[in-house]
Write a structure and sequence with these properties.
Layout: H1 3-23, H2 25-28, E1 30-36, E2 39-44, H3 46-80, H4 84-92
Helix pairs in contact: 1-3
């Protein structure tokens, strides 16, 4: 697996995890308490919800940036038909 494919895969994974974190911020920020037999209730801390949303959006943005940079590096290679090894060998000469 080339460095570019690894970068794309890692970027997509980080983006997906960031989106999941941002979407589940309410559940993560809720303090669940038992209010009776088989009954649960909770209060959501707005500051924690905001923190989780921001962390999720930052992670998603970083993942998109990483994916974009990997695609940017991949585009010239796809036009030239060169692999990572050939391009690195040509750069050394």
């Amino acid at each position: 697996m080339s460095k570019i494919r690894k970068g794309i895969a890692i970027g997509v994974i980080i983006t997906a995890l960031g989106v999941l974190l941002a979407l589940n911020a309410d559940n993560l920020a809720t303090n669940w308490q038992m209010i009776g037999p088989n009954a649960w209730g909770g209060t959501t801390d707005p500051d924690k919800r905001h923190l989780y949303q921001n962390l999720g959006l930052l992670a998603a943005g970083f993942g998109l940036l990483l994916t974009g940079l990997a695609f940017y590096r991949w585009l010239p290679q796809s036009r030239a038909g060169l692999t990572d090894d050939r391009q690195d060998l040509g750069a050394r000469i």
